[in-house]
Amino acid sequence: MAENQTVRFGIIGCAGIARKVARAIKLAPNSTLYAIASRSIEKAQKFAGNNGLSGTVKTYGSYDQLLDDPCVDAVYMPLPTSLHLHWAVLAAQKKKHLLLEKPTALDVGALDQILEACESNGVQFMDGSMWLHHPRTAKLKELISESNNFGQINIIRSTSTKSVTQDFRESNIRVKPDLDALGALGDLGWYCIGAILWAKDYKLPTLVNALPDVTKNSAGVILSCTASFYWEPLDETVATIHCSFLSHTSMDLAISGCNGSLHCNDYIIPYQEKSASFAFTSGATFLEHHIGWNVRPEEVRVISELPQEALMVEEFARLVKGIMKFGHRPDSKWPEISRNTQVVLDAVKKSIDLGCKPVKL
């Protein structure tokens, strides 16, 4: 590819999240939105028009047409989870680098087929967990890695919840067993599980246990659940997650060590695009007679030049250019992160299916 050529993206599927990523592709300096495909040309053209893309991108009335376009270098795929296996494998076979929306698959067996197709065809894989690419996330990791100020991690708590409408509960793809059978566990729990694994440097827990507060709809799709995670026998960390379509919006991440703690109220989607903060406390204790604390939490603020979704696209495109221009091997970090997340998600689902019995990993 020419030295100044950007990575040309195609978007397969016009889901709501595709609007956000289309904007991110436009903002990322090394990327170009080249084509959009839907199940009909009318839907693709409507998406392009509604997002100010008419005349600047190609539109296709089938996913196959986009995958057959030799000018498309990479695809972003926000399809329902049940469709990922077929179309992701086909995209890899067509030598298209793959940015796949989360949850990546219905189970790790399906994800392994996707990852094998990507590996055997030499294409980069990454899932759409945008928060991992925000500079705040790197700052959080820096602080919890400092043994003097933070120490051994004891407790991790992560939540992702939102209160949905009655129409959502009845007709949204996330509550349809034939489209997104994982429900809130897949849509929101993916972030929670990803956060606890990130905090533990992707060391898998040894025991996973869903709690008996599971709520499902009439079709058996999970609307709300809680789970706990343990790293035994030598690691004393305990983690809990809660994900729900039935509670007010939250996206909290709290991590406590023996010397410090941090709390982030908006770790999945920052309150603002250009800056994000979190509370950090180290060396806290009570004053005499327990009338207060000796320190107040420090607000740590991190500036971001681009939205986190654009940073995700930029990083993905950087890896793609390295493969296309310099013959680099695909970065294995990102598929490994996705697979570990899927393994633990599967364990939560298995625990729920077993009546909330513990599952060993």
From TrEMBL:
Q: Name one GO molecular function term.
A: nucleotide binding
Q: Where is the Gfo/Idh/MocA-like oxidoreductase N-terminal domain?
A: 7-126
Q: List the Pfam families hit by this protein, alphabetically.
A: GFO_IDH_MocA (PF01408), GFO_IDH_MocA_C3 (PF22725)
Which residue ranges does the record assign to the GFO/IDH/MocA-like oxidoreductase domain?
138-262
| Entry-linked InterPro entries | Gfo/Idh/MocA-like_OxRdtase_N, GFO_IDH_MocA-like_dom, NAD(P)-bd_dom_sf
**Cross-referenced SUPFAM superfamilies:** Glyceraldehyde-3-phosphate dehydrogenase-like, C-terminal domain, NAD(P)-binding Rossmann-fold domains
Family that this chain belongs to: Belongs to the Gfo/Idh/MocA family.
What protein is this chain from?
NAD(P)-binding Rossmann-fold superfamily protein
Tell me which species this is from.
Prunus dulcis (Almond)
